[in-house]
Specification:
Elements: E1 6-17, E2 21-24, H1 36-43, E3 47-50, H2 57-72, E4 81-85, H3 96-104, E5 110-114, H4 120-133, E6 139-147, E7 165-177, E8 185-193, E9 201-203, E10 216-218, H5 220-242, E11 251-254, H6 259-269, H7 280-283, H8 290-300, E12 309-316, E13 320-327
Amino acid sequence: MTESAVTRAVVIGVGHYLPARVVPNAEFEATLDTSDEWIVSRSGIERRHFAAEGEATSDLATHAARAALSMAGLDADALDAIIVATSTPDLTFPSVATMVQAKLGMTRGFAFDIQAVCAGFVFAMANAQALIAAGSARRVMIIGAETFSRILDWTDRGTCVLFGDGAGAVILEAQEGTGSTADRGILSSDLNSDGTQKGILYVDGGVSTSGTAGCLRMQGKEVFRHAVEKLARTARTAIDRAGVTVDEIDWIVPHQANLRIIRGTAQKLGLPMDRVVVTVADHGNTSAASIPLALSVGVARGQIKPGNLIVIEAIGGGLAWGAVVLRW
Ligand code: ACO
């Protein structure tokens, strides 16, 4: 195969933010028939962060955005676009992304939200790559930001112990690559959805139905059944599409929903757990924020280094699922 120059979307900055309040599993024991032991053994989650009263998704997103801008050494006006992946926006409209744009003092470019629930960051990354490849934007900030604590039913022990709040941000920049798999930047993506599976994971309220925000509802066992199979398949598709092999992957950075799903997927892919970035114990499931949070923590821990070949993969409500292969 001949290689020719291509425009790659290359990561030049990453950052994250977690709200100050940390809630250990034991806190749920006071109000629910549950235990730290049950939550840890079924999910791998030990604690999560919850946003303070008055702290909105756009606040979390703006903190993460500032951290990513600082790492890249850029002002907000150096960005052409902001994409926020979220299912828990401040308001029905305008978008969280435009609120972040204003909070950053960014006076140019465009901003919009993407909603693909837990897979939102993967969908945002693929869309940002397409904008960059098309020449519509040279620098795009993608943010995953959520306040899932606002849509939990605190009487449902099967869901409320699993989720947390947080935000992570990545800045992508157009750079010329050679077209080989040695290039830095996004090498491939694979996106999927199946709208017939709505009933196993959804929120029972909304603007045009109940007129309320609603609460998260989930058939945990059913979601689990779909997760490992679909995540392994989409990761493998993206790996094949990138023209690389599983052996070349330095890090898999999965959606952090459940340690058993993370382990099962890695096993199906034939990747040992020492090549998986895991943060679920400390963050819980932060939906669209979980992958950029894990990328940022992975860099801070010294796990992810420039030149590493990385697979991100996620599944969530919709169902919607997908994967991206990138060289850091
Ligand atoms: N504490 C104690 N007992 C509990 C709790 C709890 N917090 N929650 C449920 N139980 C009980 C159930 O009521 C059930 O009791 P029963 O047998 O008397 O009816 C028992 O524990 C077993 O419940 P299961 O649902 O069978 O437990 P399972 O082993 O499947 O674990 C879990 C549940 C953790 C939700 C698991 O199914 C799961 O992780 N599913 C994936 C869901 C997920 O990660 N969703 C995130 C959103 S989508 C995504 O991001 C991938």
